[in-house]
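Inputs:
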Amino acid sequence: AQTVTQSQPEMSVQEAETVTLSCTYDTSENNYYLFWYKQPPSRQMILVIRQEAYKQQNATENRFSVNFQKAAKSFSLKISDSQLGDTAMYFCAFADNNNDMRFGAGTRLTVKP
Amino acid sequence: DSGVTQTPKHLITATGQRVTLRCSPRSGDLSVYWYQQSLDQGLQFLIQYYNGEERAKGNILERFSAQQFPDLHSELNLSSLELGDSALYFCASNQGDLGIGEQFFGPGTRLTVL
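Outputs:
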């Protein structure tokens, strides 16, 4: 069974600084998808970034980028120029080709002014 | 706005009762997923429906059941409620085709069992 591990329950960063959130996963599959979802205090689940396992190039969305290391089964999220609105829970998620999605326990990120 | 709607937004009920949560997927999506998020926890997958049929089952209790109707909306039924069932219940949808990956989440229904 697929598992997703986020080893950092809480993190904080100063506004305008850079922070990296860690995620590792376990799977025997070769084709899969990885996601980072953001859950602000409103509790809405918002997709931040996605990565297809067959793509070697790391995904980037504006200030958000990932470091995808397939062999190491690692998928970290880097947030550059952190903003107060980035304060949220961040969930790493894995989905296989059958759309079976598994989430990590989450990392609570606080951006300090 | 993801295009996925859930009703009601909040639900308060007593132990032993039964409730029904409703989800309408994005237009064109055939697959609906239900998740449970207890306080400050990750999301636990409950069940998936695709075009009216159950496709996958996660950690769903026997007291819980779901179905997807011909118009593709889905309902999650929770019965004999316990205090521990208090949680945020999310519905998500996608086209359901193999390899799609991404799911679009509704705003959730917050269930409080007193």
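Remarks. Chain A touches chain B at residues 31-33, 35, 37, 43-47, 50, 52, 91, 95, 97-106 (CB under 8 Å). The two ends of chain A are 41 Å apart (CA to CA).
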